[in-house]
Structures are given as C-alpha cells and as structure tokens.
Design a protein that fits this description.
single chain, Aminopeptidase, 7-stranded mixed beta sheet, globular
Length: 157
C-alpha cells in the first residue's frame, strides 16, 4: 500500500488538452458490464480470476467513484472505499490501454483525492498496481517505509 501525504497534487494538468479527447468525468460508478470490461483490460486478470458476478458485487461497496467517459463509453474509473472520517482507500484506478498517457488517470485521481479532502478524511491510502509507483508519487503519494504500518493477508489464515 502507498499512503498519501497532505500536500497539493503535483503534475496535475496534462499539456495535451483533454477537451480534444472529449472526456467527461462523472461522480458515478461504471455499470457492472463497463467495470468488467475495464477490469479485464487492466492485466490484473493474470493475478486474479474473478467471475463477472463477483466483480459486480464489489461495486456497491464504493464510498465514491469517478467514471471517465468518451462518447458515453466508460474509458476509465477509480473507486474510494471509506468510512468517511478516518480512512479512505483508493482502489481500481483503471484506464483503457488505448486511452492511457492522456491525463485521464491523473484527472480521475485528482477528483478522488479532492472528494476525500472535501469530506475531511484524515488518511487517504492507495492500493496500486505494480509498476505504477512513479505515477502515484507524481500525484503526492509516498510509499510506506518497510517498518511502517500496513500489511496484507498473504493467503487463507
């Protein structure tokens, strides 16, 4: 897990105009079908075999979500799980492979973090994919130290 430090977002605003892409950002979840398509495009299916009905079951747990749309079609998403006061965990930040590199992920993250800040959530954490550390560090996130809090269950207890 990567934790967030209370600082302004760095690197927000891509030199390429998002208007050229006609991306619309909505504070909403993607549909179950859209989420499945996004999830399967992420490459995470190599690590997780998740049936469509289980993916759909995960969506109602969201405290807040952003869905990026182009021509009405979901091209990116990000979800926050939170108690609304102490902790927020950003998960499932996904942008369709053909749409990456245009600032969509950055804008999704900006909106997710802003919502957490508006609510006054004390700790914003992130569950990120391997190889994306630089991206999240540019947005103000820092890796937890090896002796820092936070662990994950490695398998069945």
């Amino acid at each position: 897990m990567i934790g967030w430090r209370p600082a302004q977002l760095i690197g927000v605003g891509d030199p390429m105009s998002l208007d050229d892409l006609a991306i619309e950002y909505r504070g909403e979840l993607p549909t179950a079908e859209e989420f499945e398509r996004l999830f399967r495009s992420s490459g995470w299916t190599e690590a997780f075999t998740v049936p469509a009905d289980r993916l759909e079951a995960a969506l109602p747990s969201a405290w807040y979500a952003v869905c990026a749309r182009r021509g009405g079609e979901a091209v990116g998403t990000g979800i926050v799980l939170s108690d609304g006061v102490l902790h927020a965990l950003i998960v499932d930040v996904i942008v369709m492979p053909e749409m990456r590199g245009h600032g969509i992920g950055t804008e999704i993250m900006r909106r997710l973090v802003a919502r957490c800040q508006e609510a006054g959530v004390l700790q914003v954490q992130l569950f990120s994919a391997r190889g994306k550390r630089d991206f999240y560090e540019r947005l103000g996130f820092v890796a937890r130290p090896d002796d820092g809090p936070g662990m994950e269950l490695s398998g069945p207890p």
